[in-house]
Fold this sequence. Notes:
alpha/beta
Amino acid sequence: MKYDTIIIGGGLSGLTAGIRLAEKGKKVAIVSLGQSALHFSSGSFGLLGQLGDKEVSSPLEAMKELDGNHPYRRIGLEQVAALAKDVKPMFAAAGMSLKGDETVNSLRLTPFGICKPSWLTFSDFITFDKNETSKTKKCIIVNFKGYLDFYPDFIADGLTRMGIESVPATVSVDVVERLRKSSSEMRAASIARLLRGDVIDALAAEINRVADDADADTVLMPAVVGFDSEKPLAQLRGKVLKPLYCVATTPMSVCGTRAQLLLRRRFEQLGGTYLLGDNVVSGKFASDGHLKSVMTANLGDDEMEADTFILATGGLFSRGIVADPHKVYEPVFGLDVKAPEDREQWYERDFFARQPYMSFGVSVDAAFHPLRSGKPVANLYAIGSVLGGYDALKEGSGAGVALLTALYVANMIK
């Protein structure tokens, strides 16, 4: 099997690179083991939300203070600004609408009622402008009876800190009530699969009833509508008489699952091949150091060949980087990883401190070619959280790095 490009990893970064390459007419295959970090999405994508102890309002401006090894600085700040403008059109082509701007962060409301800086957010989620007084004065926080992955009290506390009055309410529709017979079924994805068609009409009537009783100007509800399309949520918002917005639930994430499904669908519509439930276990290298082919767990001895390869396997969370008691390593190709040999330097004993291991990743050259025994693999690229040099958790930059390194590398491949 011969392709122009093989991408190892089918999460946000791998799919973004695959879509861009497929748009260019390339023959592309993505090998994906399964769930990615995208399935745990909060409904927002961060570009840069925190720098040290300082919350970032203008991410592009704040990037000037980043270390030169940071992926954004490797791309170049002018390129970062240009690539950031490509993201909303790419998602729109896949059937998803985003709001936000790369020049100024908005504030997204987390499931725990805390507002955090955000670059792009799904249009049906509530966000706030940091420099403006909220137009929302009183909202009703709607939840389904027995649904435990949504926390109205935490959200109400967060709204109170912003001077917004809130009232909790419980709604009920028959199909969701049936899920309550098994607590394991009362989850966001299970609910979302049922909320479509005539059920939307019944839910809208319930929401209108409680919103009218509360005399609220805005309705908030858990993000449990629209499993594989935005259409059910658009239908619901069209039937609810007050402005309705979603708040993220704790995982699994309906909006993240929807994004994964729609991006994969877009990739396949463009002619891409998506191998789900398989993983690359090794590769064959030529005498000049180029990667010739890869082998997967499912295909056995059948090699997958390509002109170029992209590593998008993720970081420690996704096991794209692995740590054992003695070393930190990249498990597929044995690439060089930038991490101290002394285990005591991997972490801080203060649990809430910035943890060094969060910035571990494969070593790359200026063109994002990973190093193997100190030498760059000229036809292999690394993107997303498999890269080192940044702390996605502390910076709020994980999605931004995933998206922009993917677009940057895909643009470089001719």
